Amino acid sequence: MAKITFITSNNEKITVEATAGSVMELAVNNNIQGIDGDCGGVCSCATCHVFVAPEDVDKVGVASEIETDMLELADDANEYSRLCCQISVSDAIDNVVLTVAK
Amino acid sequence: MGKCEFADAFKEEREKSGIGKMDDQGDPVVMLLKHKDVRKAAHNYKSFSSEAVPGRIVVPSEVNIRTTRQIPFEVDPPMHKEYRSLLDAWFKRPLQDAYKKELTTIISTVLDDVLSRDKVDVVTDLALVIQSRALTLLLNVPFSKSVKWISWGTHVFRSEGEALDGDKAAILYNYIDEEIDKAIANPSGDLYSTLLAAEVEGKKLTKEEVKGVLILTFAGGRDTVINALTNSISYFSANKEALEQLHSTPEIINNAVEEFVRYFSPLTHMGRVVTEDTTVCEHAVQADSRISLCWASANRDEKVFENANEIVLDRKINPHVGFGFSHHNCLGATHARQIMRITLKLLAEKVGDITVLEAEENIENLGEFTRKVGYNSLKATFKKR
């Protein structure tokens, strides 16, 4: 079981839990504003862009080349950017904080 | 009839020069063929603009058949974002449970009708009907409106033997004018009325702006959705195990939809007008010339997609550009994806076998390239599971 906190664009903090699946699915299932996950998680749409809290970067890990290429062309991306469809839910990411991109 | 091959028309040139060239009614187009170049140019609206003379970014150009600017499609940022923000909530409605339920009823009814017949034309009896009836949901208008749209046939702008048909386009434009006038006289909860009441930057949308959104909604989702549906059916005929796979593992339906969109790329390419002398793929292009972003070629780029010329139903990572890329990604994609997801789900539940009997291919001529984009006609039998 991992607890994940999302901070939405209106500064709402929402903590949700899951044991499996992707972080994008978790967000969509909990109606987290700003995470659409249009493509269902195949890394094609960039509608699940989040910023990982700096202290959680090691826990979450780095983006693959395909994800990095996608993020390079996303508006407002920075070194903390991830597409959360590419982050798997597991104990390893318990208590991470993700800020939803606008 | 066992084949469902949609060849990669661009492989040789993509790997050799990275660009293709075609003439289009005297306004030539340099086609970008590589995935990376296509995405970069799509993102760079300052050098490659969508805000040219209305119709010019479309290939074949529609400059001679329309003057209305399609919105937000033919507007660059930052104004583009104003329109898009206004429209996004409406065009994300297909994510709502009630919408999905109604769409399921529409598609289920069409499939039941198809299953009750000896033989059908997939293009006119299935794809056109589903597309038209589903559009009533997207516009939030009465179901009965779809009867007229079905009567228009498979293309709104295009007709056989003639790339652009001004008379046919006028039918659509006049229809939209009439519907807007009706909405002004009797406002309701449909898209026409919603747009007429909406404001951008503190100003109410004009009739011309409303018309621009509606033309885009009608035309952009017409033959693209029809081709996606028809081509998928042809695949299930040629690959008998695929429907069974979707039946036994419905959790891959979403992956299958994205893979069909990648492989079939229902919209071959979209143009941009170059705003300054620059280069694309080390090739000089001049200000006021045209380039196109060739989604169909990018989607077969073997530098990005393993086994790019195969349909891998459960492909996990699929950064395709079948719905375009960046600011101008397809406004109707949420609706189109729901149509495809529900159709695949219901086909897997209801249909045991699809067999194509006769096929008439729809081949596009793009200068040095020819590309099969779909079918003009696809006669087939459907058997119940």
TrEMBL record, chain A:
Alphabetized PROSITE patterns for the sequence: 2FE2S_FER_2
Coiled-coil parts of chain: none
Organism: Cellulophaga fucicola
Protein name: Ferredoxin, 2Fe-2S
Cofactor(s) required, per the database record: [2Fe-2S] cluster
2Fe-2S ferredoxin-type domain sequence ranges: 2-102
Keywords, in A-Z order: 2Fe-2S, Iron, Iron-sulfur, Metal-binding
Similarity section: Belongs to the adrenodoxin/putidaredoxin family.
GO MF annotation terms: 2 iron, 2 sulfur cluster binding; electron transfer activity; metal ion binding
Pfam families, A to Z: Fer2
A GO BP entry: P450-containing electron transport chain
TrEMBL record, chain B:
Domain of life: Bacteria
Molecular function, one GO term: iron ion binding
Family: Belongs to the cytochrome P450 family.
Record-given protein name: Cytochrome P450
Species name: Cellulophaga fucicola
